[in-house]
Amino acid sequence: MIEVFNAISNIAITIEKDVFQSCTDFLDTTKSDEAIHQDVYEHCRRVIESEFEKVKSVKGAMGKDKKQLCTINNDGKYLVSYVAVDNIELLDVDFSLGSMFAIYENEFNAQSLKASIYITYGPTFQIVFASKSEGVKFFSYKHGELIQKESFELTNKGKINSTAGIQSQWSSKHKALIQSFFDEGYRLRFSDSLTLDTHQILFKKGGIYSSPATTSNPDGILELIFEAYPIAFIMELVNGEAIDGERRILDIECTEFHQKTPIYFGSKYEIQHVKEFLK
């Protein structure tokens, strides 16, 4: 696993330098936003696949944007899912964004998930690595190297309320749930970047993130293989929880690559509150 982590660290350093420090190289005013985003995705994909080609234990990699498995080493045992850039629409406003990786053994399902890694770029260039054997490790990039910092553990109750989705499309139960958190004094903190909103809950040692089912997206918007599984994996290792409103995220069977889910994750108090409101 260490060689996979090292490869992802190299990927992070390259993407930080090429995309975020030199983002103006991609922001060609003669191109449409869609074309710019595609250029960034393609550059990141090449960086990711090139780095994984050096790792014999990686069998293949698949990005959320195309969902095409790139076979790297037939004798490898790890399959890697990744989100190259989380919410790329925010790239041109000089906003911190991130990448997300999940390491599966032989097949893409929750039972085969062995490690989860996310990266935050920009002003906070940091990496969070999680595995059952190593726990959750946090690294900050300074002076040309990754420096390990104190790890995270959530308290039983936080104060952050980070909620996604269009409010007019929320269910009445979800509206009441969100209002109940505000009534308890929770603060709204939402960046529209999953990696950053996750990072904030970890840094603040608690809180709640919700991405509910809505009228236009009744199955939710986060994809199990690429987003929900890896975030849930991290949450459980830091004394938190992640559910779809009722079920534990890591108990949900994934039957197709693009399968989506609503998700609520954070401290145990908040998740119990969710269960009581949505039952």
β-strand amount: 25-35%
Count of helix runs: 6
| Radius of gyration from the alpha-carbon trace, in angstroms | 18 Å
Give, in spatial order, the strands making up the sheet with the most strands.
Answer: 2-1-3-4-5-6-7-8
Count of individual beta strands: 15
CATH top level of the largest domain? Alpha Beta
Number of domains: 2
Question: What order do the SSEs take from the amino end to the carboxyl end, as H and E?
Answer: HHEEEEEEEEEHEHEEHEEEH
CATH architectural grouping of the largest domain: 2-Layer Sandwich
In the CATH scheme, what's the topology name of the largest domain?
Answer: Fructose-1,6-Bisphosphatase, Chain A, domain 1
> What is the helix content?
25-40%
Model regions low in confidence, pLDDT < 50 over at least 5 residues: none
Name of the CATH superfamily of the largest domain: Fructose-1,6-Bisphosphatase, subunit A, domain 1
Mean pLDDT: 89
Give the N-to-C terminal Cα separation: 40 Å
Describe the sheet with the most strands.
8 strands, mixed
Helix/strand-derived class? alpha+beta
